[in-house]
Structures are given as C-alpha cells and as structure tokens.
Amino acid sequence: MTATTEFLSALAEQNAVLVTVQSHRGSVPREAGAWMAVFADRQIGTVGGGHLEWQAAQEARRLLQQGIGVACSARRYALGPALGQCCGGEMTLSFEPLQAKDVPQLTPRLAEMASDWPQVVLFGGGHVGCALVNVLATLPLHLQWIDSRDEIFPQALPTQVVCELSQPVHAAVPGLSPGAYVLVMSFSHAEDLDVVAACLQRQRARGDLAFIGLIGSQTKWASFRSRLQKQGLTEPELAQVTCPIGLAGISGKEPAVIAVAVAAQLLQRMKQAKVRMGSPRD
After folding, report:
1. pTM of the predicted model, to two decimals?
2. What is the pairing mode between strands 119-123 and 142-147?
3. CA atoms lying within 13 Å on the CB side of residue 74
4. Domains and CATH numbers, the chain
5. Cβ(106)–Cβ(112) under 8 Å?
6. Does 244 sit behind a cis peptide bond, omega within 30 degrees of 0 on the bond before it?
7. How far, in Å, CA of 142 to CA of 29, rounded?
8. Which residues contact 209 (CB under 8 A, 6 or more apart)?
9. In tens digits, what is the pLDDT along the chain, a chain of 282 residues?
10. Are the C-beta atoms of residues 90 and 77 closer than 8 Å to each other?
11. CA-CA to 102 of 20 to 30 Å: which in 18, 38, 86, 161?
12. Which long-range contacts (CB under 8 A, 24 or more apart) does 190-196 make?
C-alpha cells in the first residue's frame, strides 16, 4: 500500500490535517509538494523529519482539536538553531484540515502532485526483478513492469506499479513513454537481446529514452555488442546501453543487493537529468 492509498483510506474513517511543503529557500530536507497527513493517532508521509516535522505535527494536531470548520493556514519555518537544525534554509508549510467528504476532490490532487514523477520500465519478473520492484515501489516514480509470462506478477502491488503482459516482450518497446528509464533483466538472454535491440532502434528513430540498463556481466555485454553490431548498430548507439547495471562500489550478487545498487544508479541518473534541465540543486 502506498502512502497516498493509506492516507485516503484512513481519511475515510477519521479527520486529518494535510501538511504540504508550499515553498522553500536554501538548503531544506524536502522539496515543494512533499506532504504528510497528521491524524490524532498517527502520521503518514513526511515533510523532512526532525524537530521541524515534530513542530508541524503539533500544529496539525492543535488544528484537529479545534474541530471541523478550521480554515487552511500556512506557517514559515527557519531551519536554524530555534528548531535545533542547521540546514540554514527556510520552508513554508500549508496546513489543510480534511475529512471524509474531501476524499473525492483530494484524490486527483494527490495524483497531480505525482504527475511529474519519472517513468521507469522494468523488463523481467525474476528474482532480481521482484526485489527491484520492492525497492522502486517505495520511491517517487511510476513503474511499468513488463514480462512475457502473465503468471509471474504478484496479486497485490502499489498503485504506481502497472503490470503488462507482452508477447513477444520486445513488442512493448515502441509504446513506452518518452523519457522512460528502461531496465532489462528478463528470464532469458534471447529476450534481453531483443529488448535492447528494440530500445536502440527506438533511439535511432526517436532518441527519447532517458536510460537503457542491462543486467549481466561484461562477458554478456561483449556477446551482445557483437550481435548488435551485426544488426547494423554503431558504436555511438551501443554506448547508450549501460551494462552491467548498478552503482559501482556496491558488491554482492544477492537479488536485494543488486536491486539497491540499481535503484541507487537510477536515482543518480535522474538527479543528473534534473541538473542538465536546469532544476535547482538541493
């Protein structure tokens, strides 16, 4: 269950205050749009932790105690000695009292807040694929999970994970969202090769995939390079594939270890893409 789903489900039963990062300046722990829902007995989500979040939760519970009808408000927090924090930045948090009747209008708002999340496409539902889904499902991104075997997908998955059956599996590549980060780790090398080839053909035609990562060793990639070259792909085109995938320095072949290394590399690439696009640095 995602934080959004948990929040909406809980709000249907009890009142809450939605605390949202409205704006920020300087060094801060969370970006604009980050939120937490404060109930009388629990919190869902986070606006940065520490004394800042404790004070925000206290303010939210004070509003809850005042009952239905309290107006929305906003407060500015300087992240300095008064909060026991040394970030040096400044955050403005909005406080919005909510109740069950607000769920219908709140649902699209929360979806809109996640609309600019990056799109990750995972080909393969093996041990590493499943471990990677468990990690990626906790991150602010949309995940499309593709395999040629329908029975491998779990029954219960977070709302931002969409499963797709594709036979053959590489037939799904032309329909991927522009800007997608593609991870290839199917149950067979033949399928992996077909998916990578399809991705590179798409790059030749459209050049709109942000990342193509292939699981495997340098030996596997050397074999793939040779086959792809025979298909007419050039060295600059082949250089668009990252293999092996995973952040360097994280050793271990256990599926969970590989999943963490791959997720870390993805986050690094996404951060680099934001910097290139001119997004502000944290």
Report:
1. 0.73
2. parallel
3. 10
4. 3-112 (no CATH), 119-276 (3.40.50.720)
5. no
6. yes
7. 22
8. 176, 178, 179, 180, 181, 182, 199, 202, 203
9. 567 888 999 999 999 999 999 999 888 888 888 899 999 999 998 998 888 899 999 999 999 999 877 888 999 998 877 666 666 789 999 999 999 999 999 988 887 777 678 999 999 999 999 999 999 988 888 899 999 998 889 887 877 789 999 999 999 999 999 999 999 999 999 999 999 999 999 999 999 999 999 999 999 999 999 999 999 999 999 999 999 999 988 988 899 999 999 999 999 999 898 777 665 444
10. yes
11. 161
12. 191/123, 191/124, 191/148, 192/123, 192/124, 192/216, 192/224, 193/224, 193/227, 193/228, 194/168, 194/169, 194/170, 195/123, 195/169, 195/170, 196/224, 196/228, 196/241
Helix ranges (DSSP H) in the chain: 3-11, 50-66, 103-113, 127-136, 189-205, 218-230, 235-238, 255-276
Pair type for strands 241-242 and 211-214: parallel
Give the Cα separation of 157 and 44 in Å (integer).
19
